[in-house]
Amino acid sequence: xxxCGIFFVNTPCIFLAPYQNPMYVAAASAILAMLLFAMFWSxxxxxxxxGRTYTVHCDSSEMxxxxxxxxLGLTGTKMGCGAGICGSCTIHINGVPVRSCVTPVxxxxxxxxxxxxxxxxxxxxxxxxxxxxxQAFIDEQVPQCxxxxxxxxxxxxxxxxxxxxxxxxxxxxALASNYCRCGCYVRIRSAVRRAAEYMRAxx
Amino acid sequence: MPSHISPSSEQSExxxxxxxxxxxxxxxxxxxxxxxxxxxxKYLQRSISALTEAYAPPEILPDQPFVWFTIHANNTIxxxxxxxxxxxxxxxxxxxIAADELEADWSKFFVKQADTxxxxxxxxxxxxxxxxxxxxxxxLREAAATIRETLRIEAAQRFHASSADIVMKESYATLRxxxxxxISYGDIVAGKQGTWELAREAPLKPARDFTLIGKSVGxxxxxxxxxxxxxxxFDARMPxxxxxxxxxxxxxxxxxxxxxxxxxxxxxxxxxxxxxxxFAGVVAERRSIAREAAKSLECVWxxxxxxxxxxxxxxxxxxxNRASAIIIQERGNPQEHCxxxxxxxxxxxxxxxxxxxxxxxxLAFVRSDAIDVVVSTQMPExxxxxxxxxxxxxxxxxxxxxxxxxxxxxxxxxxxxGLEAAMLSRxxxxxxxVAWTREEDMRYGYYRPPSHHRLRGKLxxxxxxxxxxxxxxxxxxxxxxPLLAGTFGEAFADTFAIDPGATTGGLFEYDIxxxxxxxxxxxxxxxxxxxxxxxxxxxxxxxxxxxDELAHAAGKDPLIFRLEHIPNTELGARYKAxxxxxxxxxxxxxxxxxxxxxxxxxxxxxxxxxxxxAEVSVAEGRLRVHNVWAVVDAGTVINPNGAAAQIQGAxxxxxxxxxxxxxxxxxxxxxxxxFDTYPLLTLPEAxxxxxxxxxxxxxxxxxxxxxxxxxxxxxxxxxxxxxxKRVRELPFPLNPC
Lengths: 203, 737
Known about the structure:
heterodimer, A: Ubiquitin-like (UB roll), 2 domains, B: Aldehyde Oxidoreductase, domain 4, Aldehyde Oxidoreductase, domain 4, 3 domains, 22% strand
């Protein structure tokens, strides 16, 4: 098992890039949750999401996915299993893909959170410029029901930032814990390849 | 002066719009197979038509075409579609059909989801069975053509010309002889004086003039889906809304006898504890609190299922005598020949969950005079009917807005979560959102029924002389009859010996002198119902694997063996073309790479034929599927790329059943409650998929389910070709060698 993505930041919490083993993620996150529950309690918190600061009032043990979706209305982050397995809820914290359904909000304090809503950029004329992965998902006509798609795109975006020219195996491994029940896998693979081309072309 | 055409501005205008009975037509084949010998013909016919009425009444499409369209002064056109976007691309396909016939500008054409107030019969919104395109293809074109011709007549009057001199194109009406004389559809509508009179003649475009039908245009929902803006039932929000959760039993099907608030009453953030007949739930300010409180309710449960998996397996076994079996297909005298069968095999398939990634979710706001529901559903009318029944209100005050659905596969034909949200909302007078957890979704829904198959075959001179297939399965289609038709439906389902859903894909389409299919209906202690393709995957797996067994026993190439048994019928001709095409694209007769083998299987569903070939290898005891080829004959294909997506998806979903999926029970409850013990197929396991879509007849057939049929048998047959070992169960064992 590759423990890539585990690193320490200035608050005593661990962020996981759960590329590999969902069971590991679930177990580690449960321990994390218990730790954090003891350390923080219900309070008012500032969260930095997509370049904005939001103030929320809740238990710091509450999972981030619910803060994003229910408190802040950022419903682009989806919720599939609540156990860190399916990957629908994947967001970035400091650029690293994490499962927001098993990440307590306390763990995100002071960190840079990016969700699917914050992935595209605004051009000078105010038009939306999609992230190359989003554009590639359109060009390959990937989504069907698309409940998994935010998570797929966030995971792929993180992969390509770290590895601009992934092999097919690297793409498969990076997205191995992002379920797609509609079965768009063949197109996801093509779209990530295509996104890598777009990104290389723009460097 | 109307600024746009909409149903409300056109209430008084009526034209006898040809009413269609496509839903009946397309379902009757399904419903009339296997008329049992137990009941009299007349009773059966009456029962069938009653079920069909409840299921898909013939007159559910609107009388007048304006229900479908709203044309704005700025020349944008909205198409309101009754069918729900579950991911199958139906909004795009219906948009293409309508815009093509209307001669509309696709860049200014927007597809909207109709809610239950738009003017469609509620049941027209039901979305399942691969029927959406095939059932709406002609009615929608007729509606669009009527609007087109109505606008043409109006434009002709403006230009003082005859209608024949007006060219309709890209949402403009232009004078043929003077192209400077042109007016947009929007301006025609905005400038209309008086009331509209619909065109009496509205010929449909010939296929050669299609501009959008048959083109792989991009999905209309895709931008919102890659930016996270698409709103699903789980995403629905209203000001002032609260969150609800419901207590669940420790055994499947147990009934709530009594409940006490217990410590939930004192939990901070709990707004109300709702305990009613057979129902206990909590409304709270936060979702986490509602869920925790619902778990802490002190409930007493009664009855329910107690069985464990061994009992289910015993139950789902083809009995040795056929006293209670129904013959759903019979030709010649198979029993005589099969009593001395050359080969006899048994197949078994597991119970499976739908595992749509968006758990059941609904938002309801109940007031005394109006009820609003936003829900992820494949059948809004069921939500409406059940809320009306439970709350004792007239269903006319209930508006159901179907949201985008995050995967349905048949499960979201259920109404449960919408009803729960409504009951909780009524108790607090505020909007309440209920979303099931993955655990609830996996344990308290309904399932694909487990099945057991016994096949016997007799060869004669390298050909199949006789073949028998006994299918034992739980209900699929009939299990939803009680939902729609109440106690009548229940009684009806009981009197019916055959389940037209579970037998889907069970028929032999081969030219075999003596053959028969027997159906053994099994009553299970848990609810089994619609799951992508109904019985298509289990039945095709058993049949096509067994055909492969016979081919090998006869010493024949499995593809050639199938070709030799193609009947001399229209269907047979289509099968033959698909098999021959497959022979080419899969390079069937070319030597294989070392350690690889190919297997083939095929089926027909909702008139679409799918032939699939899988190429596999085995390394360290693990089976791997490298390539899948699919040849599909689906008649007229509206959007080839969208159709290919459906086939790709169905193949992946089928492979997930091959490799992973089995719900097992322990003491009356599914052992798996999440993906840790019920994994789905992942990206590294996904093969390359090569799809060839044959352009067939002039009408579109179903696309959503057919692809799932052959894949399991194709993989099993390939595995046999490789290691000479036959796998006869779904899912395959972890180490199939």
